[in-house]
Design goal:
heterodimer; A: 285 residues; mainly alpha; 3% strand; B: 240 residues; Rossmann fold; 6-stranded mixed beta sheet
Chain lengths: 285, 240
């Protein structure tokens, strides 16, 4: 029972990582609090789920298509709305929150109020026996994929010229442009990447959580908690924060269900008071 | 003067409501070094910002090898071949030395006559940077940061190099090193604008001198002519 709960916690942590890595990059690098991020997750789930359930598209192809669609949607928001609001946090909060409400209503209109349940890919259905316990294979796969994506993201940011340019743009956007870096193009790339990860996470999460109206606003605060806990802009922070929150959320629901949300947000409050930049974050300059 | 690398023609610039450059004109000849002097607030750094497209001029024209660049975005101006060593160095602090150079690297252009710049040549010119290539730039000393800022500008293989007070805040022997570097770059045919507060340094190294006072050009001549005429620049430069 505890082992299963732990596996579920890590799986949920993996989903949270896919959700929050993009949120963290966008917030840490561009200083945009993107409140549509939960909507990206839900949209990904709906689009991918429909492709799988209605059009019988293979699971992974559907996940990639959904990620691409959500990335395109994110790109439009960044280019045509957020670009005009650079530096104005309040306007960014209001606009992204407004879009989140629009997406929420739009999804209700298109996909209705019933949860959309999605089957795990057939190859990963069933269980795997290890340590004398049966683990759902799909959940193990989610964990492995999240770890792989974390490694790829880290390598991209830390080991490539593109990653160095992104970090230069965060350090000093004006000077980055002086040395010829096309900062606004980089920000669009980061925003689309973050949206794609959230959309992909939405599909990955669909067989576990299903997709339902309100999933967007259920996930958004979790992304916020993870990023505040781990530190904005820090990938290791997102990873550790996601797993910690995954554990707190799952164990809290089982052990003290009436206090689940309380103990979920308690660490966030503590971190904000004691170490506002987050566990892995750099202090604001 | 053979051909002009960079010209400012009656450039006007404002910060909000305050008019900071009043019809500033000067020309940097190819492979020459122009010293831009003036006291604090005279408009030297504003000139750099206007050339780089960081601040849009309200009037006048800026040309690079005969082409108007005054309406271009900063990154396009960089792509046309102007590099800036900014005041305060402004290296990318969280990047390593190597990454600072990497993000600014640009292929040498066909018409370049100096040997092309790349990691090898920059590291050869600044051996200290090579020793510290894996270090995070924030932990370099002031002199090393200045070397890095110059190396970063060179990585773009520029045709025109703008240097905004590269001697600021450095120990005398480091200043001498920086000046030697500038001399070498000029000898290689790079066209350079050197912004300085210290006229002694500029008289030693510049071919032409422009003095700004309250956003206006008050002196503009060759160094030789100024030295001969013995013009007193102190009225424009204040006391230091």
């Amino acid at each position: 029972m505890w082992t299963i709960l732990a596996i579920n916690s890590v799986t949920f942590g993996g989903l949270l990582f896919l959700l929050s890595a993009g949120f963290s990059l966008i917030f840490g690098l561009m200083r945009v609090p993107n409140l549509t991020h939960g909507s990206m997750f839900m949209l990904g789930g709906y689009i991918g789920g429909s492709l799988i359930a209605t059009y019988h598209v293979p699971f992974w192809l559907a996940a990639l298509l959904a990620a691409a669609a959500v990335a395109a949607f994110g790109g439009v928001i960044e280019r045509f709305l957020l670009r005009r609001l650079a530096g104005s946090v309040l306007a960014q909060v209001l606009v992204t929150l407004g879009i989140a409400f629009i997406v929420s209503d739009f999804s209700l209109m298109v996909w209705g109020g019933d949860p959309l349940s999605v089957d795990a890919p057939r190859a990963l259905a069933g269980g795997t026996r290890a340590l004398g316990v049966f683990f759902p294979t799909y959940r193990i796969a989610v964990i492995l994929i999240a770890v792989a994506i974390a490694a790829i993201l880290w390598a991209m940011l830390d080991r490539t010229r593109l990653g160095a340019m992104i970090r230069a743009g965060v350090d000093d956007p004006e000077m980055a442009r002086v040395v010829g870096i096309r900062v606004s193009r980089l920000f669009t790339i980061v925003f689309c990447l973050g949206a794609a990860l959230a959309g992909f996470g939405g599909v990955m999460g669909a067989p576990i959580l299903s997709v339902y109206p309100g999933l967007d606003f259920a996930m958004l605060p979790l992304a916020l908690v993870v990023v505040i806990l781990g530190g904005a802009g820090s990938l290791p922070g997102s990873l550790v924060g996601s797993i910690v929150i995954g554990f707190i959320y799952n164990f809290g629901l089982v052990m003290v269900p009436q206090l689940a949300y309380f103990i979920l947000f308690l660490p966030m409050v503590l971190v904000l008071v004691l170490r506002p930049q987050g566990l892995f974050g750099r202090a604001a300059p | 003067m053979a051909s002009e690398a960079l010209t400012l023609d009656r450039v006007d610039a404002h910060y909000g409501d305050s008019h900071v450059l009043h019809g500033v004109s000067f020309a940097l000849g190819e492979a020459r070094l122009l010293g831009l002097l003036g006291r604090n607030g005279a408009g030297k750094t504003t000139c750099m910002n206007v050339i780089m497209g960081i601040l849009r001029p309200r009037g006048g024209a800026i040309t690079l090898f005969g082409r108007d660049i005054s309406a271009l975005a900063t990154e396009d101006i960089a792509a046309r071949g102007i590099a800036l060593v900014p005041q305060g160095r402004r290296i990318f602090r969280s990047l390593s030395v190597h990454e600072n150079l990497l993000v600014a690297a640009r292929r040498p252009r066909a018409e370049g006559n100096h040997p092309p710049w790349g990691f090898e040549t920059v590291y050869a010119a600044f051996p200290r940077l090579k020793e510290r290539q894996r270090h995070v730039a924030a932990y370099l000393s002031g002199g090393e940061q200045q070397m890095l800022a110059i190396g970063r500008a060179l990585m773009a293989n520029p045709r025109v190099l703008l240097m905004d007070e590269p001697s600021e805040g450095l120990a005398p022997q480091i200043v001498a090193e920086v000046m030697a570097t500038i001399r070498r770059l000029k000898a290689q045919g790079l066209s350079i604008v050197l912004v300085e507060q210290n006229p002694k340094l500029v008289f030693e190294i510049a071919d032409d001198i422009v003095v700004l006072n309250s956003g206006r050009v008050v002196v503009s001549d060759t160094t030789a002519a100024l030295r001969e005429s013995g013009v007193d620049l102190h009225q424009h430069l204040g006391i230091y």
